[in-house]
């Protein structure tokens, strides 16, 4: 549940570099039970997502669509363009993709507030924001983002960010939750996963679910899509959660964690 009272699925599917057959992959994901899709104006996947949704025959109220506007340009117009590409009347969640080079993007945030007011987005939020930058948006407008979408895995996360998000009732969406595969072979991870008869990827997804952060793993391959949603039949013990928490080394598969 978001602080606005709207509900958001606890797991989604990412679409960055989902370039092989976006429409087919999205239709498959919806068939498998995924109900949240993450995209962005700059991923090039929005038209394919529209096709996939149409192919699935799913009603609008039955899926949750997250997209993003860039840190430059007119965020209101970018919101409209995203919706045109997606063939949708509204997004469930519209994010500022990343903070601009200077400042927190207060004007971008005002544009998203207007877009929400006009019904183009049910909720608005940010991505790649530090706590200071979120504070600046709140100070400027009084509007608290519902979500901060950031890179997040046991190998790279921040307790300070988690505490802050809980205090402000901001949900953390975990991107690159599988470390873009770079840490899936970590022995400590494999050892715990084996105990539960699950894969390292499933363990990373489950770690998020049990800590109330929302993972959005991306998968081109059907087998991966199936595996990543098969995470609701086991529970990581407190002891193993602690071990996983202890793997934190502020690791980023993309370079640096921009929120630290
Ligand atoms: N806001 C931002 O700035 C930002 C930045 C990065 C990402 N994101 C979002 O977050 C999503 C996820 O992050 P990501 O794509 O960077 O990385 P990720 O989800 O951590 O990793 C994707 C990689 O993992 C592989 N994979 C998926 N499931 C697997 C499994 N069960 N076992 C083994 N390998 C598996 C995929 O392979 P196949 O594709 O071959 O199946 C792909 O190579 C993105 O797609 C995007 O929507 C947002």
UniProtKB/TrEMBL annotation:
<dbReference type="InterPro" id="IPR023210">
    <property type="entry name" value="NADP_OxRdtase_dom"/>
</dbReference>
<dbReference type="InterPro" id="IPR036812">
    <property type="entry name" value="NAD(P)_OxRdtase_dom_sf"/>
</dbReference>
<dbReference type="InterPro" id="IPR020471">
    <property type="entry name" value="AKR"/>
</dbReference>
<protein>
    <submittedName>
        <fullName>Aldo/keto reductase</fullName>
    </submittedName>
</protein>
<dbReference type="InterPro" id="IPR018170">
    <property type="entry name" value="Aldo/ket_reductase_CS"/>
</dbReference>
<dbReference type="Pfam" id="PF00248">
    <property type="entry name" value="Aldo_ket_red"/>
</dbReference>
<feature type="domain" description="NADP-dependent oxidoreductase">
    <location>
        <begin position="11"/>
        <end position="248"/>
    </location>
</feature>
């Amino acid at each position: 549940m978001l602080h606005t009272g709207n509900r958001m699925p606890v797991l989604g599917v990412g679409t960055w570099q989902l370039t092989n057959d976006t429409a087919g992959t999205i239709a498959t994901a919806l068939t498998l039970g995924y109900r949240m899709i993450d995209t962005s104006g700059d991923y090039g996947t929005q038209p394919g997502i529209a096709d996939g949704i149409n192919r699935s025959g799913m009603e609008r109220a039955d899926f949750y669509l997250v997209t993003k506007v860039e840190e430059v340009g007119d965020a209101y117009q970018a919101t409209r363009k995203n919706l045109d590409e997606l063939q949708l009347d509204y997004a469930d969640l519209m994010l500022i993709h990343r903070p601009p080079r200077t400042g927190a993007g207060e004007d971008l945030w005002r544009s998203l507030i207007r877009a929400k007011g006009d019904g183009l987005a049910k909720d608005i939020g940010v991505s790649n924001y530090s706590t200071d930058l979120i504070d600046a948006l709140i100070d400027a407008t009084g509007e608290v983002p519902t979500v901060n979408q950031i890179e997040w895995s046991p190998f790279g996360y921040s307790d300070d960010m988690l505490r802050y998000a809980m205090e402000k009732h901001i949900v953390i969406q975990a991107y690159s939750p599988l470390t873009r595969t770079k840490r899936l072979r970590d022995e400590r991870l494999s050892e715990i996963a084996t105990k539960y008869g699950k894969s390292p990827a499933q363990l990373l997804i489950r770690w998020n679910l049990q800590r109330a952060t929302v993972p959005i793993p991306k998968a081109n391959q059907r087998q991966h899509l199936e595996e990543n949603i098969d995470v609701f039949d086991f529970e990581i013990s407190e002891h193993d959660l602690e071990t996983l928490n202890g793997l934190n080394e502020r690791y980023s598969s993309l370079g640096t964690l921009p929120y630290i």
